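Can't attach files on this board, so I'm pasting raw text. These are the components:
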Amino acid sequence: MADKRAGGLTERLRSTRAGEALDLRRRVRRLEAEVQECRALNIRLAELTDIVTELLLPVAARDEEKLAELLEKYRQSV
Amino acid sequence: MSTTLRRVPGLAFLDRVSEVRVDGSGVRARSRQEAVLDVHFDGRRIVSFWLHRDGVKDGNGWLFAWPKTLREFLDGIADVRVVVTRTGEEVFRGEVRFGSGRGRVEVLNQHGQPISLDKYQRRVVAFDTRSGEELEPMLDAIDEVLAALKDVGIEAFLAYGTLLGAVRGGKVIGNDSDADVGYVSHLTHPVDVIRESFRVQRALIAHGYRITRYSALAFKVDVEEADGTIRGLDVFGGFLMDGRLYLMGEIGDRFEESWIFPLGTTTLEGRSFPAPADTDRMLSAMYGASWRVPDPAFHFDPPTTTVRRLNGWFRGLRVGRARWDRIYSRVLKGMPAPSPFVEWVGSIEGALGTFVDVGCGRGADALYMSERGEPALGLDFQPRSFAEAARRSEDNHLVTYWTMNLLEIRQVLVVGAILARRPGRTVVAARHVVDATKGPARDRLWRLCRMVLQGEDGGRLYLEFLSRSGSDGYAGQHRVRPRKPGRIVAELEQWGATVVHRETMPVSDRPGASTVCRLIVEWRGEDG
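---
Top answer:
Structure tokens for the assembled complex are below.
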């Protein structure tokens, strides 16, 4: 019951103009953080694509000696 | 006069700087308008500043306090001049005595070269202390890097201060201290331009250059000059997207391709270099419309939207690197003794395929294990840290040191792949790593360990980190922050690990001693 009353009060406060402004501010902050999270995927995707294209095909070729050489060369190049 | 114009510092008739005084605390002056001032000691420019932006209110005027980077030199006498940058008007001149020294104030670096402070108050050997002849090797280095970039399909041009100096007067800027080049990719998506930057890095390394990456779209190329001096040239990548030019590290402006390509030329110190087609527009994007007005104290102030885009797309790879670089160049020198932690690991483990020390610092623990006959590998994101250990162990084939940055996935994955293929049991040790890093770097550490330790040969991860900070200054000495053992264990379990040993212990017998937590961790089974 107490919870319900508190919930009702929160809702009433939220519906005031000041409450709406506060709520919007909070949502914008969250959205900004989420946009940054999405932007960070660019590096991750580029890094993974780079390693896959540089290493995956030779790995599939199963040439042990070449693979060891390639891994070392890649390590020195990043 | 419009408000915008009034804000532009350096407009002559507004620079009414008065009541200038100089003493051991700094420069005091009055000026209703913002003013850019240069301070000269014995005829040489030492520092420049914006009176209001860099000063603090002091009575009716402003006080620019001597920056920390300058204070240690202020002992003795100097003929001090304070000059309004824009007009050259001298607003103060006099002999000033600093501290109790009787000699002249000398602002020199450890090699005896005259230094000054740059716009961020960092000590630099500025171009104004160099003769034309001394600039030649730098111009050669620019040529060399531009040619190397061209070889790999990148049309680069002079950028930032180097472009500014060339276009403004055909000369390097006196208060500048390095050379910058930039390029605008023909690709138009962040992922593609990052991949291109990786390709360029690979090609330059294949040409024999050492590269230090600043971000996913900017790096430094080390060029060895004729006398053996290593000069770092910054290469800033950029691209056009949706009618905007994004150029590391400060630009996100409306721009057209025809303002860049085809590249034109500009003259620097009598030599011709490539420049964007429209240098006026490029310099306006870099320094604002007032780029023609010299301002040695200029600070970049790109709009938040640009900063957020460049940060989100390209940055976050070098968190803490400058700080650790300073620590290893100034504080942590010489070889320490092996840590009690590695002695503990050594008392449990033996006959290893490889001992891996992640965050090896000065490399003493890896060296210790190699001297016990175990093949050892030290990994650290700061190559300066283990340089001495690597030098000392040139004849010791059991120990190697590699640079690895936990924040660069490519580095972590390839090191993991190499180690996973090595025969024998692998032990990974990480002392004061989880308490010096945040979540993203720790995730990479756990990924590396899982790659290396979940194979058939087993293997273990040994961790030591600060769990409670006491009054003994241990956290400060080791530059770490306490971590809750429960939280670290939970992270490990999320990554499929099993903690087989956990203990906490004081770091000494003294009252108020901090405590560290030690964990032994295994990855059991293939699907961990």
